[in-house]
Amino acid sequence: MTTDKSNEIEFGGTLGAVVIITLSHLLMLYLWLAWRFHDGVVFYPEGISDAGAFFVQIRERIVAHATPSWSTFAIYWSFLAAEGLMAALIPGLEIKGLPVPSRGGERLIYRCNAITAWWLTLAGVAALHFTGIFPLQTIYEQFGSFMIAAMITANVIALAVYFGARVTGNAERMSGKILYDFFMGAWLNPRIGTLDLKMWAEVRVSWLTLFLLTTSGAAHQFTAYGALSSPMIFMLVAHFLYANACMKGEECIPTTWDIFHEKWGWMLVFWNLAGVPFVYSFNSMYIASRPPFDPSIQYTAFCFVLLFGAYYVWDTANGQRNRFRMRLNGSYVKRKTFPQLPWTTLENPRHLDTEVGSKLLVDGWWRYARKPHYTADALMALSWGLICGFDHILPYFYVMFFVAMILHRAGRDIARCKKKYGADWDRYGKEVPHLFIPKVF
Ligand code: NDP
Question: Which of 3, 27, 175, 219 has the fewest beta carbons under 10 Å from its own?
Fold first, then answer.
């Protein structure tokens, strides 16, 4: 185990970790209750005198409508196991990750077969649905139970990985504060044979579960009303695009911050397995549970233009930066996975050389802002809210949450980069002065 007390304490240390762990659970339960029992609207006790009855009712609703049965766990775990087996066994492109400092600079091999697993999963799920063996709306109907099964599973996995890291001597960059280390993680790259658990959770489990949840909402709407509303189609497209982008560009993910820097602690495990899919699917569930409504064609078209425009910038910005870096480290491979958008690969882009050796891209979208992909991601999040209309605030929860989370993440990343690049980072800041919005911010 490597202990590094000089490491900066983030997220408010132990207290922050306890608060985030607690609030993450409460947030998921709250959103589920709001959706399931309050028409997707913010709810609270009428007054202090009602508080007791209010909490009793919440407890009763969770027990009656969200207690997972063994069959819930069996279905959920079968899904996790199927995705794990496909990740481990299906042949795919092999990509070298970035050098891992704690392994003497070793570069781990990542097998990128998510695109095959994604289409196989979709085909399998369609077969189960259309043969009536497992109608997709079952997930919608038992959303609460699946959510709690995912939360319990995530907590168990996070505990197992934390103690596993300590017992096997794989814990690194530990602060010595137990709860904080549990939250931030102990093990950087836990693997079972060739299966990289962090990639499995991040690429396959979170986004695939999200898409399946949205599909289950669509299946419910279609079964109940005989048609899909335009907002429902919008959410299907939006979540398909997001999940598909992670699968088709999987080879770029080993060089992202979550994989090369963040350890697989409670924060990532819980949010990959439970938080991302169940919180981010709120808009789809909100649309599915209300009588279908179709905004005007102009408004719907505006939402689609915003989604597609933001998606284009997001996908190509991520591609430009990752492929630039992959070319430099010799891991770049031209892929045919759909869709390969124009301007994803830059030829001889302008960049800054730095003393530590890494080069910083200042071309393509990266000439306009230092985090253009975050801005585009936030605009996609906004479009998910806009398609739900303006009746209530909760469909805008995701975009508010995303912006707060990504601002914090940007702050952490900038602090790390300042430390790593020193004066070169200041030079980069002068070359590309704006962080999110060219000429504004
Ligand atoms: P990045 O992939 O942007 O990684 C940041 C790292 O990239 C930096 O630490 C630095 O690492 C390197 N870098 C920064 N600027 C440059 C540059 N100009 N040229 C070359 N390398 C550079 O971070 P994320 O993992 O946060 O984001 C990846 C994507 O995932 C984003 O699109 C984000 O929106 C999305 N995301 C979505 C979330 C969600 O919940 N929906 C959550 C988190 C992320 P180095 O040390 O190598 O220089």
Answer: 3
Cα separation, 118 vs 248, whole angstroms: 9
Mean pLDDT (the chain) is 96
Looking at ligand 1, which residue's alpha carbon is closest to its atom 47?
358
Structure tokens at 430: 């002068």
Phi/psi of residue 440, each to 5°?
-120, -60
The span from the CA of 58 to the CA of 62, in Å, is 6
Query: Positive or negative, the Cα torsion across 369, 371, 377, 383?
Result: negative
Residues with CB under 6 A from ligand 1: 256-258, 276, 314, 318, 321, 325, 358, 360-361, 366, 373-374, 377, 409, 413, 416-417, 420
Extract the runs of DSSP E, i.e. beta strands, from 292-404.
Answer: 351-352, 360-361
Residue-wise pLDDT for 36-59, tens only, equals: 999 999 999 988 889 999 999 999
pLDDT band at 257 (very low <50, low <70, confident <90, very high): confident
Which residue type is seen at 53?
Answer: A
296 burial class (0-12, 13-18, 19+ CB within 10 angstroms)? exposed
CB atoms within 10 A of CB 218: 23
* pTM reported for the whole predicted model: 0.96
* Triad 46, 23, 37: Cα angle to 5°: 45
Find the helix or strand (DSSP H, E) in which 192 lies.
Answer: strand 191-192
Note the Cα 128 to chain centre separation in Å: 26
- Atom 6, ligand 1: residue with shortest CA distance: 257
Give the distance (Å) from ligand 1 centre to CA of residue 328.
17
Cβ atoms within 10 Å of 413's Cβ, excluding its own: 16
CA of 210 to the centre of ligand 1 (A): 21
Tell how far the Cα of 123 is from the centroid of ligand 1, in angstroms: 32
How far, in Å, is the centroid of ligand 1 from the Cα of 256?
A: 6
pLDDT at 5: 59
CA of 257 to the centre of ligand 1 (A): 6
Residue of 207, 267, 321 best suited for mutating to test ligand 1, as the one with most atoms within 8 Å of CB: 321
Range in 168-182, 248-262, 297-311, 398-412 with the lowest mean pLDDT: 248-262
Structure tokens at 222: 């279609």
